[in-house]
Every structure is written in C-alpha cells, then in structure tokens.
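Cross-posting from the modeling subforum.

Setting up a comparison between two proteins and wanted a second pair of eyes on the formatting. Protein 1 (sequence, then structure tokens):
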Amino acid sequence: MNQKMIDDTLASLLIEAVGAATWYWNISTNEVKINQRWAEFLGYTLEELDPMTFDKWKSCVHPDDLSKALLELSDIQNTKKEAFNFEIRLRHKNGHYLWVSDRGKIVSYDYFGNPSLVIGLFFDIDEKRRITEDLRKSELNLRQILENTKDIIYRIDLEGRFTFLSKSWEEHLGHPINEVLNKSFEPYIHPDDLNKVNDFFERIQKYSNYQEIKGYRVRDKNGVYKYFETNGQPIIENNQTIGYSGIAKDISELLDKERKIEYLIYHDNLTDFKNRHFFDQKIHEINRIENYPLCIISCDLNDLKNVNDTLGHHKGDQMIVKAAEIIRRHMPNKEYLIRTGGDEFLIFLPNTEEETAYNIRESIKKDIETVSTNEFPLSIAYGYYVKKTYTEDIREDIKMSDKLMYQNKNKYKTIKSS
C-alpha cells in the first residue's frame, strides 16, 4: 500500500470517527471527502453529494465569500501557511445560506515537500452571525437616531454629572460635548429654574418612574437662555437607581409662537390694550383678594360718533389711539388695561384707593386738555369705583363704575350744550 492510499485511508477513518462536520481534501487528486454530519448540515444525505469534488464544494460557497476562501486555500497549496480559519456561507439544499467557521490544516506532504492532504472541519456559527448582524443593525439604527434626532438625548449620574449627550446638544447650545461630559448640569441651568430642575430629578429618584418638566431655561455658548422641556426616567442596575436618562426638547420657538398667538387672542390691534376676550377669561384672576382694594375705572370717549360722522372714521380711530396712549401713561399698573368696545375702556388697578384714582383722573384730564383742539376734539368721560371686599359682585361693581362714568359724560353734554 503506497503513502497516498495510507493517507486516504487514515483520513477516511478520521472524518467518520469525528462527530463534527468534517472533510479532507487530497490536493494531488483534487478529491474531496466529507462525512455524514457535513452533508446533513446542508440538508443532504451523504449519498446525494457523493462523489464530492472540489468544484462541487465551490458551488456550495456563497459567491461573495468564494474569492476569500480560494485565497486561503491557495496559501495552503503554496505552503505559505499550514492552517487556515475563515468564515463563509454555504448554500443549504433549500437555497438559503448558512454561516460556518471553516478550519483546516495540512496533515501530509508528498515526496517533494508539497502539501498533499488537508483535513478540516467547520462549526455552525449561523445563529451567532445573525445575532451579531442584528446587533450591528440595531447599533447602527440607534447611532443614526442619536445622530439625526433634533432633540437632546442625555444620561446623568446621581451626582448630576452628564455621562452621555447626543450631538444635538452642540447643535442647540454650542457647548462642545467633550467639555461637558462628567460635569454637572447645574451651571447650564438658569438660576431661577435650578430648584425646579433638581425637583424633577428628585421625583424620578423618589417614585422610580417617568417624569416630565417644561419651561426651564438652559444657557447656550453665547450666554443666551433657551427654553426646554424634558422627560426622564431612572437608569436601574441590580435593582438600584444609578442615574437618569431622557430626552430634552428645545421649545423656545414654540413658546414664542404661543406667546404671539396669545397676544393676538388677548390684545386689541388698534390700541394695544387687552380686549374683551381677555376680560372674560381673566376676570377671576383680577378679582383676587390680594388685589383689594381694587380700583375699577370706566372710560368712554365723548362725541366719538359726531367725530366719525363729520371728520371720518380715520379721525375717530386716531382719537381712540390717543386716548389709549394718555390713559396708559397715567396708570401706575398697566397689566389690566382693557378696551371693551369701540370707544370704551375698562381699567383695573390692584391695591389702589379712591385718592389715587381721583389723582389719576385729574392727570388724564389735564393731559387731554393739552392735545384737544377743534380739529381734534378729544374728551374722555371717566368714572371709578373701589372694590374692597370679596362679597361684592365684581360685575355689579363694574356697573357702578360705568354709572359714575355716564354721570360724568352727561355732565360734559350739559356743559357743552349750555
């Protein structure tokens, strides 16, 4: 029996004895022999693949992996290495591919020192590769989310130090992330909002659940404070809270739009006073005990209809604007200046007694006299009433102020007609 026959016999005995998917390759004859486990892994019987050849093996390898595998085997043939280990995909009988880790080693050389026999085996790593690929895709997706989200994703430890920040932190605030990590969040929070933010994290720690906070301010690189809203939840390891994570959203533009909308809803375009809708919505806020004594002032332009009829509505609008300007100038508190109708104004002055209301009226009267002319006959009827107890109905008190204003208006008419 020659050496080739001995080698082939030993190789055959070996691959049959090993329970793993085993093979040998006779380089001299290009003959390939596999065991039952090798065939079964790809869904075949041993008889279906017999005789196994090198070309048949190549047909089982995924096209994208074939050049890599052939390069490894070429190095074996050229004695550049004695062993190899590579990962490739083999085609199953049903047409799908399975990942394997294929390992082989030269076990025999011919008379001239060239490799003549290689024995190897492969291990099923398909599940491992698929898990690895799923993890890779998951990490890629997460990275893309972190890199592309407009909101700031953060993690902080129990001492309030940032342990992670998404790159949107720099986009919104300009502070380099590497200068912020492992440092406290507190220097970036507006001093007036710091207690509010600390309370937010204390609630997460106390209740171990999701919490939200809205309307706190964070300082950007230029020293400008921006408004944010944030959610957060505990980071728990071994049943212990080790920090907090969440998403912070810049709501500066949103709040600005809300303020503009609220302004349009509650303000009169002509005078910039509050409007009737504001009064209807805020009357309970105005009628708070802490505002007592609450001075209620009713104003109404005299002869506006006559001005509109004789000089035009544009002149009437000018008079309304001028009257509002004078009223505003003399009011110590400008929070509740309301235009309730065409030429009617209602003013609420918290913590104001009769004497102050009287002095305001006299100041307005003098100011109007300086601007009133035949071409611009500005005149205002004025009445006031001071509400001192909560038991009084504020709407009845407004009627009292209106009544006194109309008495003043009638007095003006009497003087004018005499």
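Protein 2 (same layout):
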Amino acid sequence: MIKNDKILATNAETATNLAVEAMLDEVVTWPKPGLVDPISNAGHTDMNVYTFINSSVTMMPYFKACWNLGNQFQESDLTELFRQLRPIGVTAEKTMFAATNGVNTHKGIVFILGIMVTALGYANQKKLNTVSDLINIEKQMTTGLVKNDLEKASTGLLTAGQKQFQQLGLTGIRGETEAGFPLVIEYGLPIYESAQLPQNERNLIALLAIIAHNYDSNLIKRAHNSDLVTQVQTDAQQIVTNYQETGRLDKDRLEKLCDKCATHNLSLGGSADLLILTIFLEKLIK
C-alpha cells in the first residue's frame, strides 16, 4: 500500500523537471543488473551513462507538450486524449534517436511518462490531486490498448512486445499501462516510500522489487530461456526478502545478480522504465 496518495500541484515546468530528474536518478543508480550505470554499460556496447543523460535532456520539450495537452483537453473520451498524444510521442522518439545517433535509450519512457505527464496535466485542470486519480485517468486514456496494439497486430513487421504477445501471451508494457501500472503501485512505490536507506539503495531495492514480478520484454528477448528469466526474478526476490527481514541491502547477492546478467548479456530495460515511473510518482507525492 502507498502511505501517502496526495500529489503536489504542478505546472508544465514542474512536471517536466520532475520527469527528467526521475530519468537521471535512475541512470546514475548503481550497480544495476542488466542496465547501464556510471560504472558499467552492462553489455550494452552502443550506449553509456552519457548517452542516457543526453537523451534525458532532449525530453524536456516533450514533457511540457504532454502536460499542456492534458491541461487543455476538453473532451469527455480520454482515449481521444491518448490518440492526440501518440503523434507527439513519435516526434519525441525521433528527437531522442537524433541525440543518441540512433540508439534506443528511452523509447519506453516516451510512452510511459508521456502518458503520466499528460494525465498529470489533465488532473491539474480537473483539480484532482492523488496518485489514484492519476492512475484512473491513464487507465481511461489507454482503454483498449492491448486489443488495439497487440490483438489486432498483423503477422508482418512486429515489435518485440507484439511477438511476445503472439508467442507467449504476454501483454508487456501495454498491458501494464492499461491495468494501471500494478508493478509500480503494488511493488515499486510502496517499498520505495518506506525504505530507510540512502537514495541509491532506495532506488535499487525498488528496482529489485519490480524485477521480481516483471516479465520484462527486454529480459525475455535476450534470455531465450524461461528458466533464466525465472532465475533473475527469484534472485531479485531473495534480495528484497532479505532486505525486508534485515533492513539492509545485500550487496553480495546484488553483485552476483549483476554478474549473471552480464554473463548472459541480459537487459532489464522494462524494469528500469518502471523504476523511473516509481521515482517520478514519489517526487510528486513529496
């Protein structure tokens, strides 16, 4: 359970700053299994921490546009708000790729935080001020997303998420979004709020709580092995359980998990995106 549900009043500038801060907070957190941090590229040969910093900064105009779109939207059907957001997101992706020389650093965040910042702008207009309100808005915005993007997808050129839906029945980030981000609301945010740890370790324990329950499309794509996916989830849960029992982050176990991800060239980019959302929401709650 989230301890405090009430969020701060925002404007476009505040929302943008908090979103970019959350992105930067995530990338400087270390050591992260299967993810770029200031010390390791974690098997990502085409990117490093500076790539992510450059990409994050390019998102500022996008988040301002998202907040303003939500704040000015007057129609009753919030799926129309999402429809209007999507071309703005496509433009933001192009800006990101230009800044990173074609490397996908934050495509998932363009999607996730784009929706949430738009929902935040709409909430401001309607004088709604809780995390529950935000989740309710974004769920209305994305109603039918799995059906429209996954169930109706042809067998032609498919994204990794569409392939995993057709082959494994996994709904990925679209399902997570349409369901109201349960991995964040039920796992990431509660432990993040309550953790009596230094900031870096708070970020890590929230990330691990998400990893333990997330069928991360990035992980599945690289693992090619359901047993390996389960191992990563189990290892993450053991660290979380140990923290809940001792109040300490087991750095030895974390290092072993990082080594396992490096050995198998695993990526946990989907979980990193949900950590960014967790951090963003906590900043709003403050």
